[in-house]
Fold these 3 entries.
Entry 1:
Amino acid sequence: MEWVDVVDEQDSVIGVAERARVRRENLRHRASYILVLDEAGHVLVQRRTLGKDFCPGMLDACAGGVVTQGEVMEPSARRELAEELGIRDVPLQSFGTFYAEGEMDGKGYRVWGGLFSCHYQGPLQLQAEEVSEVYWMSLAEIAVRAAEFTPDSLLAISTWQARRQG
């Protein structure tokens, strides 16, 4: 059973709930978002498996996931990179937090995201339960195919673009 901090509008912890309840009741929580870039600036895009509880089968422009109870954003980001893609020991650049809220396929989401990026071009070990395949895409390709992407990852990309340009 996975426990998750429930947070308020200011990202302060107000309780704890099981992950399944967080999803079912659309409770506000935290998640890490990591853009993995190659030297040419392409983004490593994941296709989510059909078993995912949020946006199954869709493309995701970020590695990452739900931050567990008591976990801090950067360690969560590092854990998710290692679990999903087998990426370890890379420098992460932080771009702060952002808030995403909306609905996708009848399921709501309300999440405070910790936003990071890293550069990586080595071997990958995909987590079979979460990632069915990966692609390197330019920001232009992602924009053209936006309807295929999770809405929170598109918000993460636009936030990253705005913040890295100062």
Note: The longest strand covers residues 107-119.
Entry 2:
Amino acid sequence: MNKTIALIPGDGIGPDIVNEAVKVLNAIANKYGHVFTYKNVIAGGKAIDQFKNPLPKAQLDICLHSDAVLLGAVGGPKWDNVEPALRPEKALLGLRGGMKVFANLRPAVMFPQLKKACPLKDEIVKNGIDILIVRELTGGIYFGDRGTSNDGNTAWDTEKYSREEIERILRMAFGAAMQRRKKVTVVDKANILTSSRLWRKVAEEIHEEYKDIELNYLYVDNAAMQLVRDPYQFDVIATSNMFGDILSDEAAQIVGSIGMLASASIGNGSGPGLYEPIHGSAPDIAGKDIANPLATILSAAMLLRYDFKMEEEAKAIEAAVNSVLDQGWRTGDIAGDVEAVRADGKLVGTREMGNLIVKAIES
């Protein structure tokens, strides 16, 4: 099978980790008889430097004419003082809007090999952590009306959702839950927000089509507490743009390392999806061969699964990651006792971790 993948290395450690994901994708292509062609895209801070625009139309068009898009990271303190309309993060909003990807799927899984890195007590995580957060991506307060008063002393941002935006997210959440533990938790703030009450109304209507699914609701503040009190209670979380942004980072921390979490941003299937690790650009370690590439590699597995329908190939990457972790190989962020891992000769950098995953796939 021939497929084109747009690569957005971006800023900071983005090029480091994307390079390793490409090595892994090439190993998959060689093993399973595929041909992956890559097109480089400039976005984020590098695009600001080169084009004075975080996402030029020509760069977005490359993404739109590809079969899938793999992103490293964008942003960094170098661009902290540019005007708001030109911030590197605007590239992410532009990609999501331009590609019409409306749902972000963020699996938060505690790898058993990394249990010691989990900050929660053993009795809390004895059943493991396996949560899928389904976050709405193109609506809500990040895209609502906003403004500042003429005197600069008042500012506002508007949370706004339509039935259509809510329904398509909830259908994705219910559909995912059917393949998992059949439980959906809608996280909102319905005691305060009118938009959240619409989320609940639509959820009740869609639930009629999914009688096998257990549906419950939590206010976002309670949900944040419950994630650290009893994470196993969660299967699929469906929530708004802002709440999902916050809770997914909390979920990343409780599983041990934000460097292990992949994500997929997908739409209705008519165009390419956007795949990226959820960590930041970490410019302080860029180019030093110490960043963890596993979240990006696992994002590549999601790319194969969702956009290319290559389930066997996706599982091969995931199995390779598990095999490498089973053997004790660690980057610094997931090492726990770094000096002990170093003494065992198992502490590796970005490139060697990528090489280990390739070897596991080839074996």
Note: Residues 14-32 form the longest helix (19 residues).
Entry 3:
Amino acid sequence: MLTRKQNELLRFIHEKLKETGVPPSFDEMKDALDLRSKSGIHRLIMALEERGFIRRLPNRARALEVIKLPEASTPGPARNGRFSPSVIEGNLGRVRTPVAAAQDDDGPAHVSIPVMGRIAAGTPISAIQSRSHTIPMPPDFLSSGEHYALEIRGDSMIEAGIFEGDTVILKKQDTADSGDIVVALIDDEEATLKRLRKRGASIALEAANPAYETRIFGPDRVRIQGKLVSLLRKY
């Protein structure tokens, strides 16, 4: 499963090739997706190439080939004539609680939580890709509502006890209080796990590692995708 932004770019490239036989330029792609810089296009193209949807042809400028399209790719709601991106994909919107795994006679049922991919606790990456598998969680480790899990990459939250290789459990929600650890979607392109701080009209995404700077954004540039409720670690 692709993010909405990746899907939007793939569809644009595909339609442009059908219409003209020539791939769109980076400027055309940037304008079509309403991105602020070409660097976002570079990241999206790399993600599409890594997932086998496009191929960059060597020794040819602007040479892109669409290899395949998503099997069931349905555009989301329009916003100003464009698709409204949402990083969280898959069946997350239809997860019901509880979903019981095998239950011991003397123990509570477990809830199956979908693992939606990887998230950066460091430099932001295109993070949440698709539902890969589920993990059983005791109900006591969850709050009310819908939940999903992400695998951690990076070290920016180590002083909050979150390390590379950990699995974090998040409650799906689009609001959070100052001080909460959240999945934040920046500019509808990149997702990261950080502590949220509200500074007047601005939003600060604060690392828990002195090697990383706090990043401050306007409220229109950050969307909350979930709040941390639990953590799993294998030794």
Note: Residues 72-108 have pLDDT under 50 and may be disordered.
